[in-house]
């Protein structure tokens, strides 16, 4: 049986510096939106801020990412970033995401990130321990 993990949603608004020369959000900014949402969600929902995680000597780094662009976001659009852990393995986790334009409730982008847990002292990957699995298994 595959374990189910909780999903969380964070709402943001497109800012002027997010816009590219084609008058919509630059493709790289969507990745920033997901990372900002995860940063906020770690503290609000998992009870483990990134700062606390780092104090423990750990960090999360991106190993790979897949993003599918469906519809652009524009200046001033409110949008929701829904994220959740899809799976946890011995070295990290896969986090999936959906970004929805709240103006029309349509999908803007979706995809996933593969994160590796590292030891901040040496920058090398470390095994995800049971404490971390329990923490993120909500």
Automatic annotation (TrEMBL):
* Superkingdom, taxonomy of origin: Bacteria
Asked whether the keyword rRNA-binding is assigned, the reply is no
Keyword tags:
Hydrolase
What Pfam families does this protein's entry cite?
4HBT_2 (PF13279)
- An example Gene Ontology molecular-function term: fatty acyl-CoA hydrolase activity
Q: Does the keyword Hydrolase apply?
A: yes
Q: What protein family does this chain belong to?
A: Belongs to the 4-hydroxybenzoyl-CoA thioesterase family.
PANTHER family reported in the protein's UniProt record: 4-HYDROXYBENZOYL-COA THIOESTERASE FAMILY MEMBER (PTHR31793), NOVEL THIOESTERASE SUPERFAMILY DOMAIN AND SAPOSIN A-TYPE DOMAIN CONTAINING PROTEIN (0610012H03RIK) (PTHR31793:SF27)
Protein name (record): Acyl-CoA thioesterase
